[in-house]
Amino acid sequence: MSNNGSLTPADIERLMTDRSATARAETVEKIASGLSASENGFSAKEREEAEQIFRLLVNDAEVLVRQTLAETLKSVPDLPHDIAKTLASDIADVATPMISFSDALSEEDLMEIIQSQSDEHQKAVARRAHVSERISEQLVEKGSEDVVATLMENDTAEISESTFTKVLDQYGTSEKVNGPMAHRTKLPITVTERLVTMVSDRLRDHLVQHHEMSPGMATDLILESREKTMIGLIKDGASHNDLVRLIDQLYENGRLTPTIILRALCVGDVDFFETAMARFSDIAVSNVHILVNDAGGKGLKQLCEKSNIPGGLQEIMKVGLEVANELDFDGAPGDRERYRNQVIERVLTHFQDEFDGENVDYLIGKLGNSAASEAA
Hints:
- This protein is mostly helical.
- It has helices at 9-17, 21-36, 44-57, 63-73, 81-88, 92-101, 107-116, 119-126, 133-142, 145-153, 161-171, 175-182, 189-210, 215-235, 240-252, 258-266, 270-281, 285-292, 298-306, 311-326, 335-350, 360-375.
- It folds into three domains: 1-88, no CATH class; 188-249, no CATH class; 257-376, no CATH class.
C-alpha cells in the first residue's frame, strides 16, 4: 500500500507470494486498515479489490494470517457479510474477535453460532455490546455455566425475567453465575428476591456449620436480615405490577410473613402492606384499603383475624397506619427514616414502654415473640 493509502500491485504480489506467515499477516493488516481509514482510505475500486483478496485469505492455511484478518476487520464499517460470517465460523482463536465486535453479523448468524459452535464462540456472543433478549435466552438454553456467567457479566445484555428465572433454576447455587448477576445494574425484583433468599440460605448453613449456632437461631437471624433487605429493595422503587408479582412469589414460597408486612408498614410502604394483606386474606386490594381505613379499627381487626395475624402485631399495624395517614411523604432525604422513628416512638408510647427497644427490628422481634406466645 502506498503512502497515500492506496492499494498497489506490489501489496497484492507480496500477499499472494510471500511464504512467511508473519509477512503476509503484516500486509493483511495494512490492507485491512485501509478499509476503516477515515481519511486517505481506499477508492471504491481499491475497496472492491481488497474485499476480493480477503475472500481468498479467510481460507489461508496459516492461523496467524486469519487471526490478523479477523482482528483488523472486526470493527470495519460495512464489512461484507460473507467475509464476517466465514471468519466467525473459524476456530475460536480466529472467530472470537469477529463474533464479539462485528456489526456485519446478523442475529440469525449469532443464533447459528450458539447452536453449532464451541463454548469460546458462545462466550464471544455473550460479550457483545448489544445482546438481544432472544440471543440471551438461546445462550442460557444452549450454553455452559461459563457461557451463562459471561452473559451475566455483560451489563448491557438484554435479559428477560423468564430467562433470569431459568438461570436461577439451573445455576442458582453457582457463585460464578449468581455473583455477576447480583451486580447487574438492573434486575427484576422477583429475581432479586430469589437471589437474596439463596444467599441467605447458604449463609444460614455456614453459620450453623462454622459458628456453633443452632439452626433455629441462624434461621431467625437470616429471616430478619432477608426481610430487611427485601423492604430496602422495594422502597428503592417498584411498579405496582412488580409489587404484585413479588408478593405472589413470596406467598407461593412461604416467605410472605406477618413480620415482612409489618416491616413494610414501618417504613411507610402502605402499598406493599395493603397488597400483601390482600394476598394473605384473599380479598381485593380495594376492599383491603376500605377495611384498614375503617375509623373504628374494626376493619383491620377483621382483616388480621382472617389472615391469622396475632393481636400483638395487629396493634403495631394499627399504629403504623395511623402514622401513615398523618404524614405526607415528599421524597426528601430522610423521609422514611423520620417516619420509621415516629412509628417506633408512637408504638412505644402506645404500649407504655412495655417493649424496651431501641429500634423497630428489636420491637418487631419482641412483638413477634409475644404473638407467638399468645398463639401457643
